[in-house]
Structures are given as C-alpha cells and as structure tokens.
Amino acid sequence: MDLADIGVTGLATMGRNLARNLARHGYAVAVHNRTYVRTQQLVKEFGGEGTFVPSEDLAAFVASLKRPRRAVIMVKAGAGTDAVIEQLAELMEPGDMIVDGGNAHFEDTRRREAALRERGLHFVGTGISGGEEGALNGPSIMPGGSKESWQALGPILQDIAATVDGVPCCVHVGPDGAGHFVKMVHNGIEYSDMQLIAESYDLLRQALGATPAELASVFREWNQGELDSYLIEITAEVLDQVDAETGKPFVDVVVDQAEQKGTGRWTVQSALDLGVPVTGIAEAVFARALSGHPEQRAAAAPLRGPALSGTGGRELVEQVRQALYASKIVAYAQGFDQMAAASREYGWDLDLGAMATIWRGGCIIRAKFLDRIRAAYDANPALPTLLADPTFAGALDAAQEAWRRVVTTAVEIGVPTPGFSSALAYYDGLRRDRLPAALVQGLRDFFGAHTYHRVDKEGVFHTDWSGDRTERPA
Ligand code: NBP
C-alpha cells in the first residue's frame, strides 16, 4: 500500500472537509476518527474525490504516513486535543509533525509546542478560518511552529488555502503559538465587525422605521463600496430571509441572545494582559453577554427611555455607513495593535501586512478593506497605529462628522451603539494632545504616593499631599 502524504484525525465537519480539500488537490490523505464509522462514511461518500487511506486506530493511521509524518488534528479543542497529541506523540518519531488545526488557546499551543520540541517533534498550532465551506474550498490558514515544519508543510497548506489575486491566504505566521494567536485576534475582529453591522441595522430600523427587507437593500448597496466584505454581503441575505412558518422577517423570529464560543473573550483577556485597548472587540463581547441575560432585561424593561423614538431622514443611512466604516477602521487598528504587542512580548516577529494579506480570502472577515491595511504596512512596516496611515486618516477625517451625528442620534433615541461610541471615544482619545490621565496620576500620587513624571523636566516626583504640599524628587 502506498503511504499517505498527510493525515487528518478528527473527521467531524471541519476535519472531513479539510481531508476532502487535501484529496481534491491530489494528496493521498490518511484519515482517522475516534469513532470509526465517521471514517467509513467519509470514504463511502467522498472516496471518489481522491486518495484516502482509512485507518481504524491511531497506530495504523501513523503507520500509513510518509516520513517525516504530517498529521493534522481536527478534534474539539481542549482536553481531547491533549489526549490525541499524547497518543500521536507516542507513536511518532523525531522530525515528525503534529498540526493542531482546532481553535486552541495560544498559550496551550505554546505549552504543547515546547513539550513536543523536547521530544524532537514539531508541533504546528494552526489557525483555520472559513468554517466548513472554507475548509472544503479554501480556508485562510495561519500556521505557527518552527521554520523547518513550515518547509515541509507550507507548500501543502498554501495549495489548499484560498487564493486572492493568485496569492495564497496562508503564510508562516511565526513560532510556537503565533498562528493560534493571530486566529484568535481574527475572531475578535469578527466579533467587532458583526457588532458594528448589528448596530447599523438596529439604529436604522429604530430611527427610520425601515423594514429588514429595506435594510437588506441598504447593505447590498453598501457592499458595492468601501465596505465590500463577506459579512456585509451575508447581512443582506439574512435580512432578506422570510420565515416560512410565520411569514415574518427571519430576524424577528430568532431569539435575540447572541452566543459565543470563547475566542472573542480570549482576545479581550489577552489584550488586558498586553495592555492594549481593544475596546471595539470588548464592547462586542460584552454586548453579546448583555443580550444573554433575559432575566435582567425583563427586570429593566420598564425603565424609562427618551421621549424621542424615531428621527432623521434618509441622510442617516449615509451617516451610518460612514460611522460603520470609521468604527471598522478603529476595530482593525486595535486588533493589529494587539498583534504587534504580542509579537514584541513573545518574540514572534509578526509581519502585520502579511496577516492582512492572508485574511483577504477564505475567512469570515474577508474584505476589500484588507488590501488597504496591507498597503498601509507596505508603505510603513513600523506604523504605530493604522489610524495614522494617510489613507485611513483621510477616511476618518471624511467620516468623523457623520460618525458624531450617528452617536448623537443613537443617544437621543436611546438605541445602544457601544461599538460606534467606543470607537469614536478611542479616536478622540488617541488624537488628543492632552488627556485627563494627568489628573488620574495626580490622584494616584495623592492617595497612594504612586509618583508622577513632569512635562517640563526629567525625573520622578511626589507631592507631599498630607504635609506642606511641596514637591520633591521621588
Ligand atoms: P468538533 O469541535 O465538533 O469536534 C468533534 C470531533 O472531535 C470528532 O471527530 C470527535 O470524535 C472528536 N473528539 C472529541 Br469531541 N473528543 C475527542 C477525544 N477525546 N479524542 C479523540 N477525538 C475526539 O468538530 P468541528 O466542528 O469539525 O471542529 C474541529 C476543530 O476545528 C475544533 O477545534 C473547532 O474549534 C475548530 N474550528 C471549527 C470551525 C467551524 O466552523 N466549525 C471553524 C474553525 C475551526 P468522535 O466522532 O469520535 O466523537
């Protein structure tokens, strides 16, 4: 029997489709699943798509792989992944590669990579975005791990990834947990994108009394311009959908409690550790959390809102479009900031422009917009913030008046727009010459002798607040 080029273990939705994608690209794919029936089903249904080498147990699966062995794990993230890694590691030999394509936390990936490196094995934590459709037809792939493992795996991964303008949506992201980190931030940005879209829809519906079908047309039109993206495109589809049973708009029969699997929360937790304000992502995570408390919402429902409930004319549509674009720039600026901070913290040497490149296709946040981000980092790889790039600075400048109108309108009619508002606050905060952080420093020095720096001379100072209030060097 010929040996397989690469193997996939874990053949639920993602693993099965990834295995099929590999087979369709001419690779002989070893396939295995804890419950054998899934393996049999894959070969029965899709065996004609290419060469599959099924195995009932992991030992046979490993034995069916060419050396150095390349085994991709696509099982539920968490304890299951650790169990499978351990079983594979027992069966593998130095130089072999274990690829984790699940949604692992990057710290777990760092731990696993270090442990397997000790045993002479390569561990490649790989972010894969695009859901089941992407896995089958070309996802965005974000592999971490050693340069050696990239040499052996990179060509295969680039082969099966999505391509945009002939460029594969897959590069070697960086060592150890870098791939899973970048995938995590991708998901965080995805949260933010969706929140901003939801706020746009909500505000226009409440302010103008527009129907979901009318708003579908608005989003379809927006998708022709600078907002052109997969998420805007599918927003129009979802808003156009009519429930077959009731004849109501689909969006009105769905329970309004947004769920989450955790990558948004991880992004915010990591941002807190790194000291990076990812307010757009945080507001999106918290907005989902707020939606998920029906008992509190019921208790608060009688609270009074503003007298004004609807307002504005059609000009609000264009203002919201501009607010959405400006807030999106802020959300991405924050996400890219977080990647830059992690790159410094963990020594990853991330190429931020390349991250924008590999998100242009295959993944959920794919958008024309990412070309502009790539261009910004091409022009200045050391850009301190995306907001300072001339193209984005110009776009923010053009949008800021409308953005302020939108936030004002939302406040006036009592529609919550935490994404728009926090993005605007970030924009205003970052551009300020002087921030009230100076007062915060004064208070910290007053109650805790935490000291402060002065604007006009070097050194660290403390004022004797409880005594004669003179200043002395600390
Ligand atoms: P699931 O996350 O639903 O996991 C099911 C698979 O894990 C099955 O193959 C199952 O085997 C296997 N498994 C479990 Br559960 N515990 C195991 C254990 N202890 N040992 C061995 N195998 C075990 O599958 P999925 O939705 O295809 O996702 C796979 C990975 O890809 C996840 O980490 C997910 O977060 C990630 N991901 C998913 C998406 C998406 O859109 N769904 C997108 C991007 C990434 P069984 O058949 O024997 O029960």
In short:
This protein has 474 residues and is of the alpha/beta class. Helix content is 56%, strand content 9%.
Detailed description of the structure:
Helix 8 packs across helix 12 (263-274). The N and C termini lie far apart (76 Å). The longest helix has 32 residues, at 315-346. The protein has a 7-stranded mixed sheet with strand order 3-2-1-4-5-6-7, sandwiched between helices. A two-stranded antiparallel sheet has the order 8-9. A two-stranded antiparallel ribbon has the order 10-11. It has helices at residues 13-24, 36-46, 58-63, 79-91, 106-118, 131-137, 147-160, 178-208, 212-222, 230-240, 250-253, 263-274, 279-291, 294-300, 315-346, 352-358, 369-379, 390-413, 418-431, 437-448, and strands spanning 6-9, 28-32, 51-54, 70-73, 97-100, 122-129, 140-143, 163-164, 167-168, 461-463, 471-473. The mean pLDDT is 97. It has 3 domains: 6-172, Rossmann fold, CATH 3.40.50.720; 183-431, N-(1-d-carboxylethyl)-l-norvaline Dehydrogenase, domain 2 (Orthogonal Bundle); 436-473, Up-down Bundle (Single alpha-helices involved in coiled-coils or other helix-helix interfaces). The protein has 474 residues and is of the alpha/beta class. Bound molecules: nicotinamide 8-bromo-adenine dinucleotide phosphate (NBP). Nicotinamide 8-bromo-adenine dinucleotide phosphate (NBP) binds next to helix 1, helix 4 and helix 6. Belongs to the 6-phosphogluconate dehydrogenase family. Pathway: Carbohydrate degradation; pentose phosphate pathway; D-ribulose 5-phosphate from D-glucose 6-phosphate (oxidative stage): step 3/3. Its EC number is 1.1.1.44. InterPro entries: 6-PGluconate_DH-like_C_sf (IPR008927), 6PGD_dom2 (IPR013328), 6PGDH_C (IPR006114), 6PGDH_Gnd/GntZ (IPR006113), 6PGDH_NADP-bd (IPR006115), 6PGdom_BS (IPR006184), NAD(P)-bd_dom_sf (IPR036291), Pgluconate_DH (IPR006183). Keywords: Gluconate utilization, NADP, Oxidoreductase, Pentose shunt.
